[in-house]
């Protein structure tokens, strides 16, 4: 089981505070599971004697399964930010599916769970309690991840070639910073706009426009957290917005704060 960097990813809001409150470890999938899963992750925290901490992030366009005591569920892509309240001491294990990678398990449009969640038993037909105990009581991270992967390995659906197609498109949009609107994604991928929108609805759960917006806001939040932003107009232009009022509106609609309010909280 290969462990990757522990650095908090883009999208985690106020990461300098978060690094003092919790740790994140990520592990790469192995074998056939890697066709569907982007990585596994484990968050640990010890806040005994401290105030609870709401870990908040601008969600990536990925479905996640989170294994935690008495509440193992599969979470669709959040419409705005997503948050997990960290109390006392504990840990959770997550499966981050590739964009499109959860559709073969669900076998219906992933948009049907966007902004919501799906019960573990509802999807897999087994009670979550024994699975949670078996995973969370393992003596180390690697064995917890291995137990989750073994469970998935035993229930892998048939490969769907659209998983690779959609995952590749999402990564291309992420990597190419000139993609600032859907028409740019159409140019980059060569796919018909309507076809792309239908694919994203079925396999990703959110529209191409939403995916592009999330990457831009990830960049914005990261720059604000680093203290690199001096002028909102300059930042909005760099991110591909026609005017900074549109950028501020997008930021507030997702984060719940204006960029300036977010900077002040930093």
TrEMBL record:
SMART domains: HTH_ARAC. One of its GO terms (molecular function) is sequence-specific DNA binding. Pfam families: DUF6597, HTH_18. The keyword Amino-acid biosynthesis does not apply. SUPFAM superfamilies: Homeodomain-like. Keywords: DNA-binding, Transcription, Transcription regulation. Residues 163-265 form the HTH araC/xylS-type domain. InterPro entries: AraC_XylS_family_regulators (IPR050204), DUF6597 (IPR046532), Homeodomain-like_sf (IPR009057), HTH_AraC (IPR018060). Transmembrane segments: none annotated. PROSITE patterns: HTH_ARAC_FAMILY_2. The keyword Isomerase does not apply. This is AraC family transcriptional regulator. It comes from Paenibacillus contaminans.
């Amino acid at each position: 089981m290969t462990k990757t960097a522990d650095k908090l990813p883009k999208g985690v809001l106020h990461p300098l505070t978060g690094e003092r409150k919790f740790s994140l470890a990520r592990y790469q999938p192995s074998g056939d599971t890697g066709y569907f899963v982007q990585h596994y992750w484990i968050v640990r925290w010890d806040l005994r004697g401290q105030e609870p901490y709401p870990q908040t992030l601008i969600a990536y366009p990925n479905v996640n399964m989170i294994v935690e005591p008495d509440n193992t569920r599969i979470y669709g892509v959040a419409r705005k930010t997503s948050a997990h309240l960290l109390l006392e001491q504990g840990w959770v294990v997550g499966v981050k599916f590739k964009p499109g990678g959860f559709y073969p398990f669900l076998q219906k449009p992933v948009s049907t769970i966007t902004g919501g969640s799906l019960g573990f038993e509802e999807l897999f037909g087994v009670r979550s309690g024994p699975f949670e105990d078996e995973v969370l009581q393992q003596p180390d991270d690697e064995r917890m991840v291995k137990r989750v992967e073994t469970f998935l390995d035993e229930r892998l659906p048939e490969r769907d070639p659209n998983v690779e197609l959609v995952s590749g498109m999402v990564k291309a949009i992420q990597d190419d910073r000139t993609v600032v609107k859907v028409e740019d994604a159409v140019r980059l991928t060569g796919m018909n706009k309507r076809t792309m929108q239908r694919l994203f609805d079925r396999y990703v759960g959110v529209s191409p426009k939403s995916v592009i917006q999330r990457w831009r806001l990830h960049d914005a939040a990261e720059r604000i957290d680093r203290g690199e932003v001096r002028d909102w107009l300059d930042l909005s232009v760099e991110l591909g917005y026609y005017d900074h009022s549109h950028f501020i509106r997008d930021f507030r609609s997702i984060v719940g704060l204006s960029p300036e309010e977010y900077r002040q909280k930093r």
